[in-house]
Amino acid sequence: MEAIVSPSRVSGIYTPPASKSAMQRACAAALLHPGTTVVNHPGRSEDDAAALRIVGQLGAQVSDHGDRIGIASTGHPQLPQQPLIDCGESGLSIRMFTPIAALVDGPLQLTGRGSLLQRPMQFFAEVLPQLGVPTTLNKGLLPISINGPLQPGDIEIDGSQSSQYLTGLLMAYGAAAHTGATIRVRDLKSKPYVDLTLALMQHFGMNVPRNEGYEAFVFGPSKPRAQSVVTYTVEADWSGAAFGLVAGAIAGRLEVNGLDVFSEQADKNILQVLIQAGIPLSVREDGITVGSDSLPGKGRGWAFNATDCPDLFPPLVALAAFCDGTSVIEGVSRLAHKESNRALTLQEEFGKLGLTVELQDDLMIIRGGCPLRGGVVSARHDHRIAMALAVAALRAEGPVTITGAEAVGKSYPQFWQHLQQLGAAVSLTGQSTA
Ligand SMILES: O=C(O)C1=C[C@@H](OP(=O)(O)O)[C@@H](O)[C@H](O)C1
Ligand SMILES: C=C(OP(=O)(O)O)C(=O)O
After folding, report:
1. In which pathway does it act (predicted)?
2. Could you tell me where in the chain the CATH 3.65.10.10 domains are found?
3. Whole-structure pTM value
4. Strand arrangement of the beta sheet that strand 425-429 belongs to
5. Among the four 133, 193, 287, 391, which has the fewest Cβ within 10 Å?
6. What is the CATH number of domain 2-17+236-429?
7. ipTM score here?
8. Which CATH number is associated with domain 20-220?
């Protein structure tokens, strides 16, 4: 599918979708919870669908009622009839559900599709055998074969590549029976995502470890958990909302509702950058207003460290393009293994529209303030690249055609519709050519 975005203004009120980070964690916690979980405001992205499929395969009963989903479970993942679990393209699903699936007594295989097949998983081959789980990979990549049950024990892991592995281990340790265990972590990145995991575990009454400065997670002995009903409401997604906030900042005035300003989500830090850039912004508990009714002026250049919130790079590049002077984002090394190599993808695709993006060690330097030209760009099978290009296109000098526009489905299937509803000139045509 192609999206053609012509220069246009946006205005109105909108509510971003449910957070896939919260929804996928809720699915995992529901599988590990003895009893029933009612998930309100469930996410509907492709990654969310993958998580729901996985918990179904691991023995939970999933009943979908539209605005809420019921998940009933014994609290123990079961050996599936078909022992091949497909995690779609979701990095979080494969990395969170592998240790959880390893709680099962028996052999299992997990795999994925598309870009996930190129993302490194070597961590598991190094760590799971230390927990009693023989593990094989395909040269460090998927599929992964494991043979549980995982037995929690004291362990030290590398947290520098992704926090998602730790999220999976925390969930598995939090559900398994043991007499106490400590996960030591070197150089943890994306820390707020671990806070989100711990908050979910707390909500579901799991065995929650003591967090010693993100360097050690100390579990006490597990206690038996009684059957109960847990209700969980999935919060709105700051990562998806970041695109709407940037659209309002550069091309109109938007009111974004439903976001929790006290959320654990890493990407709420977009607000700090909007403030630095001098964008008109009003933050209330019930909503955020961004941009101005008069034709928005340019913001000013800014500097921001996105090491712990790497998903902000794409919307921040769109913002930086419209800020005078130089903007600098630190944390480039975090981008190599996402749905695409996002530093290069951003440099190349925004480069086609005339934006200069330089990469210097861990820094991305964006020379903004000159109008972008129209042209043809590719989403490169990466939802956040598609959305960043679309938002930037609102202020380009001519129409921007984005090929592979269906990529948004991974996190934000309603993205194009939302943009149209807010007044953006977007037409959608044809099949994927990205
Ligand atoms: O736990 C999560 O929900 C996520 C963690 C982050 O990954 P890393 O920990 O690999 O940075 C983020 O980029 C990803 O989109 C979602
Ligand atoms: C990198 C992302 O997700 P995941 O790692 O879960 O595939 C993302 O949503 O930008």
Report:
1. Metabolic intermediate biosynthesis; chorismate biosynthesis; chorismate from D-erythrose 4-phosphate and phosphoenolpyruvate: step 6/7
2. 2-17+236-429, 20-220
3. 0.98
4. 375-378, 400-403, 2-6, 425-429
5. 287
6. 3.65.10.10
7. 0.99
8. 3.65.10.10
